[in-house]
Specification:
This protein is of the alpha/beta class. The chain folds into two domains: 153 residues, 2-Layer Sandwich (VC0802-like); 191 residues, 3-Layer(aba) Sandwich (Rossmann fold). The chain contains ten helices and 17 strands. The protein is elongated. It starts with a strand and ends with a strand. About 3% of the residues have low confidence.
């Protein structure tokens, strides 16, 4: 079948990368057909169960559609596609329907296209229901194409709103928002019941999103109050995981024991690192350089072969550190949060 993913416009590269990572995580064979104007089209054979799983995992996608026909974005051709579509293969006689228009509709097209398409379907014996239809058909536009689609899934964005930091029992400024955290988790390719590690877990926002999709979660933070706070946040959302007070440069795990790592490395003005029973305070730049080097070594050690690590940092120089280790750099993304903060996302694979 041909599927179209209507992607979020919040970022230029992350939404597409998240979809493809989810398909890979579920071992779905697919072929990319088109990516234009926030619409990703693929050929793939997915069961209803797999589609449901993907829709529940995604954070930066709006809707998933099955394509039933396509044409140039011209009214006569669009209506011809609707007329020739095998509606009876989609609809039972008692089903109702609605037609919507989404995407980059050309200004040359007149208003009322939904109504004209709906009239064609109505003449085939089906009733319109604009408030609660059995099936929703969508005319999905890119600049060069109109797809006639059946809506399969709408991604539940309400869940991310409900998990925003201000609603959690433990809060700290500067944390990653849930939707973005979910995308990072998906980039790691983590699967259900696999072991997921965040070695700089902070308040646990990334761990929560991994737990929500069924991973076994483990978090480490050098500050006891953060580890305790992250544990409280997990319990608040009825999630369980292992929270450890520890040093990311000395991870107390066996070699090749972790399936995926996602973390937002610290970049505050001052930081602490545990050394024996003492804490050593260093200058920001020297501390962070050493911490990143040691943490990368440890992440590489505990990751399984072909396991992925998704690292978020505030500096593009982090990439040069990763290239010096036995990682393969799969992807790089730049995410501008606001004028004074840009996050650099690097997806690494252990060779």
């Amino acid at each position: 079948m041909q599927l179209a993913f209507e992607l979020s416009g919040e970022h230029g590269t992350l939404p597409k990368a998240e979809v493809l990572a989810c398909l890979d995580a579920l071992s779905v064979d697919y072929e990319e057909r088109m990516f234009s104007d926030g619409i990703l089209v693929i050929d793939a054979q997915l069961s209803p169960e797999s589609l449901d799983t993907i829709s529940k995992r995604l954070g930066m996608t709006h809707q998933i559609y099955e394509i039933k026909g396509m044409s140039k974005p011209e009214e006569s051709e669009i209506l011809a596609v609707v007329k020739n579509a095998a509606i009876c293969d989609i609809m039972e006689q008692w089903h109702t329907f609605a037609v919507r228009v989404k995407g980059k509709k050309p200004p040359s097209l007149e208003r009322g296209l939904e109504k004209k398409a709906g009239e064609i379907i109505k003449r085939k014996g089906y009733k319109v229901n604009l408030t609660n239809p059995s099936k929703t058909f969508v005319l999905l536009f890119t600049e060069q194409t109109c797809f006639f689609c059946l809506l399969l899934h709408s991604v539940d964005k309400k869940q991310f709103e409900e998990r925003k930091p201000r609603f959690r029992p433990f809060f700290s400024p500067g944390v990653i928002m849930p939707k973005f955290a979910r995308a990072l988790v998906n980039l790691s390719g983590i699967k259900n019941k696999e072991l997921f590690l965040d070695p700089f877990c902070g308040t646990g926002g990334i761990l929560m999103e991994a737990g929500m999709i069924g991973a076994r979660i483990m978090g480490i933070d050098v500050q006891e109050k953060m580890a305790k706070g992250a544990n409280a946040n997990l319990r608040f959302y009825e999630l369980t995981g292992d929270l450890i007070v520890g040093d990311a440069s000395k991870i107390a795990l066996k070699d090749n024991s972790v399936d995926a790592v996602v973390t937002d490395v610290p970049y505050g003005r001052s930081s602490l690192i545990s050394g024996s029973s003492n804490f050593i305070t260093e200058s920001r730049s020297l501390f962070l350089e050493r911490l990143y080097q040691d943490a990368l070594d440890e992440i590489h050690r505990v990751l399984k072969t072909r396991g992925k690590a998704v690292i978020v940092s505030c500096s593009s120089s982090f990439l040069s550190l990763s290239r010096k280790r036995d990682f393969h750099v799969l992807e790089e993304h730049i995410y501008r949060v606001h004028k004074s903060l840009t996050r650099y996302i690097t997806v690494l694979e252990k060779e």
